[in-house]
Write a structure and sequence with these properties.
Helix content is 40%, strand content 26%. The chain is α+β, with helices and mostly antiparallel strands.
Length: 82
């Protein structure tokens, strides 16, 4: 299984929407989602504080910044399987 990471934080409605989109895209796939709360890490807060939610690839270090939809997430995932 390949890990992808969602950088987010609590009480972020956009992060909740992003998580739903990603969950839909990775169901029945070889990916699993790790959620990381940027508020727990000063470096991540500095890097992503005004950009969350951000989908991150642990394979090729690419990032997908909000806003994104199913089509964008599927394209992002497709790049990881090539």
């Amino acid at each position: 299984m390949q890990k992808i990471t969602l950088y987010s934080t609590l009480a972020c409605h956009l992060c909740d929407i992003a998580e739903e989109i990603i969950a839909d895209c990775i169901s029945n796939s070889n990916f699993f989602l790790e959620k990381i709360d940027i508020a727990d890490d000063p470096e991540l807060l500095k890097k992503y504080g005004v950009s969350i939610p951000v989908l991150y690839s642990n394979v090729n270090t690419k990032e997908l910044f909000w806003p994104f939809d199913n089509l964008a997430v599927n394209a992002f995932l497709e790049e990881l399987t090539i």
